[in-house]
Design a protein that fits this description.
mainly alpha; single chain; three-stranded antiparallel β-sheet
Length: 209
Amino acid sequence: MYDDVELPFPDAKVASLLCVGGPCSYRVKEGANNVNDNWIRTHVVPETTIVYDAELSLILGKAILWLSFSELNARVPVNIRNRIHQQYGMIRQLDDGVNPVEKCLLLVTGFDAVVQINEVRVPAVDNVGQQQAVAAAGNDLETQNIEGMSSRQIMLGMLAQITVLQRGIVNLNREHENDRATLSRQIRVLNQNIRRVAINPIRWLNQQQ
């Protein structure tokens, strides 16, 4: 129970844990200068500006714009997706097929009344399995060379990798428990059959013949 109306870190931490794949933010890529705040509100989420304030509409608009050009674009209603693609085609500055919005993982840290939310860019790695794990976690992050990164950026990248590994461990433990439950049921059935054979082995042999 809360005894204080201002607890930003617990609230932010709980919200981050409720995000499927982890909390993230969306930002317009460099070079897509025509995709400004007003364009997003007007052509991506015009209906939300009637219900929500300008800031919240912009947050929703960037997320929908990213989704419309991602591999998951089928989740956007056809009429909205077509409208966005048509309007963006008139102002496109990036190469064809390039998503004008990038998705960044957010790292929520802090304590008590202090909260820090940092964007994390996961550095490129040679291990294919790690790259697949990051993608499977739903981050869809763009990689960058580790050279030239500050120690803070490297630390945040490592923390992001640890988060991915922790999720993988949780999934493995869940699968292990499922396998253990299945094995226990199979052993229980086997023991029942052994007891039946032990009680009347001749009858069992006759049935088999």
